C-alpha cells in the first residue's frame, strides 16, 4: 500500500573540485567560479565570445574547498534519510571522469548510512532492519558486488516494484562497521582501471542499495501490523570521457564506449523528462542503467543528483555538458510515496475498508444518475397510486353500504313491500301518466298564466338582457312590498325570473307558506297577473328545510284542490312551440362549459334530455345552469386562489370526479348493451371492437365534442341507457351520490310519487334540479343563488303538477 504521491523536483547540486596535482603541474587554468551557494559562473568571456560571463544556477553549488560533509548535510541528508520513513530515495553522482564522483559518493554513502543508524538508535519504539546490496553495470552487464563469482544478473520487471535485479545478494546490516566492511568488499569487486585522467577510474556504474524496513515494536509479529519499507540508492556513475583525453585503448576504450552510451541514454531520458509531456516517449530500455534508474528519475522516489565538475580549462567542454545535464535534471519531477507493507490481516482489513468505500461511491454514483432518480420517482408514484386505490375501494364500499341502507329503508317504510314492487310502482300505469302528460302539455290549457313573479330589477348598464347579469335577487316579493324580512340573504336577491307559471288562484294561499300572497301585496307586474309566490322561509328568512318547503307546497296544493275545482279543467298552459333562439344559444354555451368544467356526464345527460325548452320553465333552469357554469369556470380559472371556507370543488377535484364517473360508466357498458348494440356504438364513436380498453375508450369519447350536436345527442343516448335514465333506479343514485343526500329527499320524492302519483316524467326534472341544487350547495354566492332559484322554480313546477293531480278528475 502506498500513500498519496508527493511530487517534487529532483534536487540538483553542482560540486566543483579543486585542481588536482596533475592539473596544477600542467599549469591548468580554471574558468569556473562559484559566486554563491546556488550559482556557478563561467568566467572565460574571451573564449565564449561574449561580453558577460555565463551563469548556471542550481539548488546548491559547492566550490573546491567545500567538504563532502557539507555537501551531504546541505543537499543529500534530508533526502537520504527519507528512507527511514518509508520513502524511496536515491543520490547519484554524474560527471566526467576524474571529476570527483567516487570521492563524493563514498563520503555521502558513509554519512548517510551513519545517520540512518543514528536515526534507528534514536527510535527504539520501532524495530528496523537495514539490508545492503551492491551491483555494478559494467559493459552493459550487471554484476553483484557482494558475490565474486562474476555472474551476470538479470533485470526483471515487477508489476509492483518496477525493474528489479534478480538474485542480487542482500546483506542485513548489523551496524556501521558492518557497512564499512561491505563497502570495502564492493570497492574491491568494482571494476577500476587506470586512465590518463584517473589512476583509479571507475569503469562501471555502481549502485549501492540500502533497504530499510521498520515496524512499531508493539505490533511486531502481530497479524495487524504494518511495516514501512523503502530503499535508498547511492549511485556512483562511471565518468563520461573522451577517448582522446583518456587516451584509452583496448578494454578501456570498450569500457568508455559502453559508459558513454549508457550516459547518453541517461542524458536523453533526463532531457525528455525535463520537457514534461512535450518530451515524447521515453525509452528507459535503451540501457540497463536507465532501466534500473527509472524509479529514481520519474517514479516513486526522492532524488538528488550531484554533478561533479573538473575546474580545468582543458575539460571545459565536458564540464559544460555536465552542466547542461544538470540543467535538464533540475526540471525533472518525481512522485514519492510512503511505502507501507501490511500483514495479511491488516491487508484484509484495509481491503474491506476500501471495498466499503467503493460501494458507497457506487451507491452515490447510482443515486445521482437519471435512471436511479426515475426509478425512485416511479416507486413513489406506485406507492401513491396504491394508496389512492385503497381509498377508492373504501369509498366504493361506503357508497354501496349507504345505498343498501337507503333501499332497506324504502322497503321498511311500508310504501313498497319489496324491491320488485318498488320497481313496478315506478313503471306501472303508463296510460295514466301519458294522459297526465298530455294534459300538462296541452297548449290550450290555460290553467296557468304567465306572470312576473319576481320584479325585474335590471341594471341600466346591463347589456346582457338578464341571464348573465350579476343578479340582485329578491325572493317572493317585489321591492315595493319587500320589507326585508323574508329575504334569504341580505346579499342574495333574485333580480329576475321570467316566465314562471303560477296558479291564478294562488293569490291568497296558506298563510304559513305564502304570507305575501295572503296579505295581498303581490306585485302586478305582467299583464293581468296577480300572484307572487314566496317559498317557505325560516325565521331569519332562510330556507329551513326541504321538508318544510315541501310541506308548504303540499298545503298549497291541498287548498288549491279545494278552491280551484272550477279551474282545474283550465289551462296548464305552456307555449311548447316556443324554443327561442336565446335558449338554443345558452344551451350550446352550456355544452361547452360542461366540458370545460368537467361536469358529470350523467348530469349533462339528464339536463340535456330534461331541459329541452319544451317547458317555459326550462329557460329559467338553463339560465341558472349557465350562470352556475360561468361561476365555476371563473373559480377554476383563478388557479392559485385560496378556497373559500367550505368550498371543495376545484378544477382538479372535478377532473378527478369525472374520471371516476367515466370508469364507473365503463363498467356498465357490457351490462346495459347487447353485443350487437355495443358493436354499433363502438363503430359510431370510431372505436375498434378489438381494442382491449374499448369500453373505457367509449366513455372517454362520450360528451367529448360539445360543438357537434349529433355527437351530443348520441352521447346523451348512450349515457341515458347506461344509467337507466328511464327507470331512475339504482344507477342514478350511484352516479349522483344520492346515497350522500339527506334521506328525506328520497322519501319526499317517493312520497310525492306515491301519494299523488304525479307522472314522473313531468316532475322528475324539477326534482332533479332540486336534488342537484342540494348537491352543489355550498356557501358561495353563486351556489346559494342557484339553489334558491332552482328551488323556487322547481317548487312552482311541482306545485303545479301536484295541484293538477290533486284537483284532476282523472285522479
Ligand atoms: N572535491 C575534491 N577534493 C579533493 N580531491 C578530490 C575531490 N574530488 C575528487 N578528488 C580527487 O580527484 C581524484 C579523482 O576523483 P574520483 O576518482 O572521485 O573521480 P571520478 O569522477 O570518480 O572518476 P572516474 O569517473 O574516472 O571514476 C581522486 O584522487 C580524488 O581524491
From TrEMBL:
Biased amino acid composition, Basic and acidic residues: 462-480
Coiled-coil region(s): 341-409
Region of interest: Disordered: 462-488
Alphabetical UniProt keywords: ATP-binding, Coiled coil, Microtubule, Motor protein, Nucleotide-binding
Domain Kinesin motor: 9-332
Binding site for ATP: 95-102
Gene Ontology CC, one term: microtubule
Highest taxon, organism lineage: Eukaryota
Matching SUPFAM superfamilies: P-loop containing nucleoside triphosphate hydrolases (SSF52540)
Keyword Nucleotide-binding: yes
Organism the protein comes from: Eruca vesicaria subsp. sativa
The protein, known as: Kinesin-like protein
Cited InterPro entries: Kinesin-like_fam, Kinesin_motor_CS, Kinesin_motor_dom, Kinesin_motor_dom_sf, NACK_C, P-loop_NTPase
One Pfam family of this chain: Kinesin
Assigned protein family: Belongs to the TRAFAC class myosin-kinesin ATPase superfamily. Kinesin family. KIN-7 subfamily.
GO molecular function: ATP binding; cytoskeletal motor activity
Amino acid at each position: 500500500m502506498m500513500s498519496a504521491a508527493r511530487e517534487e523536483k529532483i534536487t540538483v547540486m553542482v560540486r566543483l573540485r579543486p585542481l588536482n596535482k596533475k592539473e596544477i603541474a600542467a599549469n591548468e587554468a580554471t574558468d569556473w567560479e562559484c559566486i554563491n551557494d546556488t550559482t556557478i559562473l563561467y568566467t572565460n568571456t574571451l573564449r565564449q565570445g561574449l561580453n558577460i560571463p555565463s551563469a548556471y544556477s542550481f539548488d546548491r553549488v559547492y566550490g573546491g574547498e567545500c567538504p563532502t560533509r557539507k555537501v551531504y548535510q546541505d543537499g543529500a541528508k534530508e533526502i537520504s534519510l527519507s528512507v527511514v520513513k518509508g520513502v524511496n530515495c536515491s543520490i547519484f553522482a554524474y560527471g566526467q571522469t576524474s571529476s570527483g564522483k567516487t570521492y563524493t559518493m563514498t563520503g555521502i554513502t558513509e554519512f548517510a548510512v551513519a545517520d540512518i543508524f543514528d536515526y534507528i538508535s534514536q527510535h527504539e519504539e520501532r524495530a528496523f532492519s537495514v539490508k545492503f546490496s551492491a551491483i555494478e553495470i559494467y559493459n552493459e552487464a550487471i554484476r553483484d558486488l557482494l558475490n565474486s563469482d562474476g555472474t551476470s544478473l538479470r533485470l526483471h520487471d515487477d508489476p509492483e516494484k518496477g525493474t528489479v535485479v534478480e538474485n542480487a545478494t542482500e546483506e542485513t546490516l548489523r551496524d556501521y562497521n558492518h557497512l564499512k566492511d561491505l563497502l570495502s568488499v564492493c570497492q574491491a569487486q568494482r571494476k577500476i582501471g587506470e586512465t590518463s585522467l584517473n589512476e583509479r577510474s571507475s569503469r562501471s556504474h555502481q549502485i549501492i542499495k540500502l533497504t530499510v524496513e521498520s515496524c512499531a515494536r508493539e505490533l511486531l509479529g502481530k497479524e495487524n501490523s504494518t511495516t514501512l519499507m523503502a530503499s535508498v540508492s547511492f549511485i556512483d556513475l562511471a565518468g563520461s570521457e573522451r577517448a582522446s583525453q583518456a587516451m584509452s585503448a583496448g578494454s578501456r576504450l570498450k569500457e568508455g564506449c559502453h559508459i558513454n552510451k549508457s550516459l547518453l541514454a541517461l542524458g536523453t531520458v533526463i532531457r525528455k523528462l525535463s520537457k514534461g509531456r512535450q518530451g515524447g516517449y521515453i525509452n528507459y530500455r535503451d540501457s540497463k542503467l536507465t532501466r534500473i534508474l527509472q524509479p529514481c528519475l520519474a517514479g516513486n522516489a526522492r532524488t538528488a543528483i550531484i554533478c561533479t565538475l573538473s575546474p580545468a580549462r582543458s575539460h571545459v567542454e565536458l564540464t559544460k555538458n555536465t552542466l547542461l545535464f544538470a540543467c535538464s535534471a533540475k526540471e525533472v519531477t518525481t512522485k514519492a510515496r510512503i511505502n507501507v507493507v501490511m500483514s495479511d490481516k491488516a491487508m484484509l482489513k484495509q481491503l474491506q475498508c476500501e471495498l466499503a468505500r467503493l460501494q458507497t461511491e457506487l451507491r452515490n454514483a447510482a443515486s445521482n444518475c437519471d435512471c436511479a432518480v426515475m426509478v425512485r420517482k416511479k416507486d413513489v408514484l406506485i406507492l401513491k397510486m396504491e394508496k389512492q386505490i385503497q381509498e377508492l375501494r373504501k369509498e366504493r364500499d361506503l357508497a354501496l353500504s349507504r345505498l343498501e341502507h337507503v333501499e332497506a329503508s324504502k322497503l321498511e317504510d311500508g310504501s313498497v313491500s319489496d324491491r320488485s314492487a318498488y320497481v313496478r310502482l315506478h313503471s306501472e300505469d303508463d296510460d295514466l301518466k301519458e294522459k297526465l302528460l298530455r294534459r300538462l302539455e296541452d297548449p290550450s290549457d290555460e290553467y296557468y298564466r304567465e306572470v312576473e313573479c319576481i320584479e325585474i330589477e335590471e341594471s341600466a348598464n346591463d347589456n346582457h338582457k338578464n341571464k348573465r347579469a350579476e343578479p340582485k335577487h329578491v325572493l317572493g316579493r317585489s321591492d315595493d312590498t319587500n320589507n326585508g324580512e323574508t329575504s334569504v340573504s341580505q346579499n342574495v336577491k333574485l333580480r329576475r325570473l321570467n316566465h314562471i307559471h303560477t296558479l291564478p288562484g294562488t293569490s291568497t294561499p296558506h298563510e304559513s307558506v305564502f304570507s305575501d300572497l295572503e296579505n295581498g301585496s303581490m306585485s302586478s307586474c305582467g299583464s293581468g297577473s296577480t300572484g307572487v309566490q314566496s317559498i317557505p322561509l325560516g325565521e331569519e328568512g332562510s330556507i329551513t328545510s326541504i321538508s318544510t318547503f315541501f310541506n308548504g307546497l303540499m298545503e298549497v296544493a291541498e287548498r288549491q284542490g279545494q278552491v280551484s275545482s272550477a279551474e282545474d279543467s283550465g289551462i296548464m298552459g305552456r307555449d311548447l312551440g316556443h324554443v327561442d333562439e336565446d335558449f338554443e344559444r345558452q344551451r350550446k354555451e352550456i355544452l361547452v362549459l360542461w366540458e370545460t368544467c368537467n361536469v358529470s356526464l350523467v348530469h349533462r345527460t339528464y339536463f340535456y334530455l330534461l331541459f329541452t325548452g319544451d317547458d317555459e320553465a326550462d329557460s329559467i333552469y338553463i339560465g341558472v345552469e349557465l350562470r352556475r357554469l360561468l361561476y365555476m369556470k371563473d373559480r377554476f380559472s383563478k388557479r392559485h386562489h385560496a378556497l373559500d371556507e367550505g368550498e371543495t370543488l376545484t378544477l382538479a377535484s372535478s377532473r378527478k370526479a369525472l374520471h371516476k364517473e367515466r370508469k364507473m360508466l365503463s363498467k356498465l357498458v357490457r351490462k346495459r348493451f347487447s353485443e350487437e348494440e355495443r358493436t354499433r356504438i363502438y363503430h359510431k364513436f370510431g372505436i375498434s371492437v378489438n381494442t382491449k380498453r374499448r369500453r373505457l375508450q367509449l366513455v372517454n369519447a362520450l360528451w367529448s365534442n360539445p360543438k357537434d350536436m349529433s355527437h351530443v345527442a348520441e352521447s346523451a343516448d348512450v349515457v341515458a341507457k347506461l344509467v337507466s335514465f328511464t327507470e331512475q333506479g339504482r344507477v342514478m343514485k350511484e352516479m349522483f351520490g344520492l346515497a350522500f343526500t339527506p334521506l328525506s329527499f328520497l322519501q319526499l320524492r317517493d312520497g310525492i310519487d306515491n301519494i299523488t302519483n304525479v307522472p314522473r316524467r313531468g316532475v322528475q326534472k324539477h326534482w332533479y334540479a332540486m336534488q342537484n341544487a342540494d348537491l352543489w350547495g355550498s356557501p358561495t354566492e353563486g351556489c346559494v343563488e342557484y339553489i334558491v332559484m332552482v328551488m323556487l322554480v322547481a317548487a312552482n313546477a311541482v306545485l303545479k303538477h301536484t295541484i293538477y293531480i290533486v284537483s284532476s278528475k282523472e285522479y
